[in-house]
Amino acid sequence: MADYELVLCRPDGVGERYRITESGLRIGRGTENDVILSDKLASRRHARIFREGNALIIQDLDSRNGVDVNGARVMRAEMVEGDKIRIGDVVFQLIRSVGSNIGQSVIDEEKARALHESILSEGGGGRLAVLYQAAKLLGTVFDIDELLREILALIFAALPVRRGFIILCREGEEPEIHASRSLERGEQGPPLSRTLIHHVFTQKSAMLTTDAQDDSRFDQAASVFGHQIHSAMCAPLRGRQDLVGAIYVDSGTTPRPFTNDDLGLLTAIAQVVGVAVENARLYNENVQRERLAAIGQATAGLGHCVKNILTGIRGGSEFIDMAIREDNIKYLKSGWPIMSRSVDRIEMLVMNMLTFSRDRQPERSVTDIGMLIRDVFAGLQIRAEKVKVELDSSGLQAGRIDVDPHEIFRVIQNLTLNAIEACERRGGRVSATCVYDPEGCTFAIADTGEGIPAHIVPRLSQAFVTTKGSSGTGLGLACTYKIIHEHGGSVSVDTAVGRGTTFTIQLPHVGTQGRVTAQGYL
Amino acid sequence: MPAKRVLIVDDDSIARLFVQAVMENAGWQTLEGFDGREAVELAESEQPDLIILDIAMPVMDGLEAFQTLRKTTSTAHIPIIMLTGINEDSETRYTPESMESVFGVERPEGFVDKPVDADFLLNSVMGIMG
Question: What's the number of domains chain B is made of?
């Protein structure tokens, strides 16, 4: 029968070789063995290799952490040339001896290194690949709990984990489980090791235990070990400043131990996740702060606007009261324009608030923009005449485009009202143009009014920015930008103080919305 | 005797409409201004008998307009009623007392708190114009 030998594959290349003699090979930590291992995952008497007829057999001698042949846990198995044997963190390969020249190797240094690497990372497709996947998750999953669940799933795929928990903590608060996963039977499986977690939280370093009884770091009465958990690891989630939590995994009730390499991978994942958790928290805090500030600003802006309108309604109603009391229509003529203006304004405010507060997809139908402009102009004709503003709709080309007619109507209404108000003091002209080309429709509302101060222009798309003092809500243009944005279009403005303003809207045909320019959003 | 003329300056059209209605019903002729700059221009060219001036306005606010009107010889004699309300910067309410410290000796002839109460406004006008 051919001679075989066991070659130790080390991270740095080929290690010792052990010839398998007639009496076989004994492997373990004890000094009585032929192959003496210093790996702490190895048992004193771990395994035996022996010949049986023509076969070469490996047998687990009831070791604590088991024997893997080609990635499969075995108690007893027949081996053939090329088999990879793993005991703890130690990897061997079975090779055939070349004649009597035992010194000649059939595996070279490079192969041994690769073998060591591939065996230790089996099931995960390589540690770098796992880390790469973890980093990729950070870029694609933004909800923190969802991210933690995905990370846990990744850990399960990469490591022989039966149960896993990701625990997050904040200063002054009890740590809380944010993601959990278990392959153990029953709802919960054994409780997780509070001892281990406590250790990680206090020491702020990663921790691996392969067996409680051997592990002097723990009190033997400690929680986990009463629950037959054979092996557990815990790695801290560290942000740039503080500990933000920990990842805990264990092998459940199966006797599969974790290795230092497993801990290394868990720690590396934990480092990436720790920074992500901290970033997410900072981001959420900022969003929260900005949201509160925006709510404050919105409430103040709306409150102010509504108060002005209410004043108008109250004032108008006083005159109407007088008209009724004194049966004199003269007072009605004073009161009614005030009431009417107030109602217009509150209607506009409410419509804009609704547009501004909800995200919606345009309900498109075939629309003639020119017709919409004519409708808006017709509705505002009397108001424009009162303040000596001429409405000119002679530059409208006929055409069709798929847009939300109600929303675009509101855009035109907002722009036209602004244009009329800009001319209100000295009279003037508001003119509309509309042209179609293969890309879509471009329309513009131009006025000869006061113009917009340069410092306001970059902020036009923001809500509650107004040039109209107490009579504006600052919502009209914000809604205009929002609606056009939802249509995939762009808004541009050309303005000069004292000369007038032109708003130009470009609406693309559906399916050609890629061409939205950044400039359009100011 | 021809009707007296009042210049009403407020950027909010509803508020302006209301004051205008109150004054017209009391027999006044009204002129409108939209901001402080127009208040100064119209006061010089139209020489109204009274100016009702809002404080918070764009371009030139009521405080600056008041000071300019008082410094300008042709308008220094025109009585002014300031419409006061919330001071938006400090979010506190202007009061005649706080206004005194703002205006010093040259204080306006009247203060009317916003929202404007028609009777209070007319009483103030009576008090000033006799």
Answer: 1
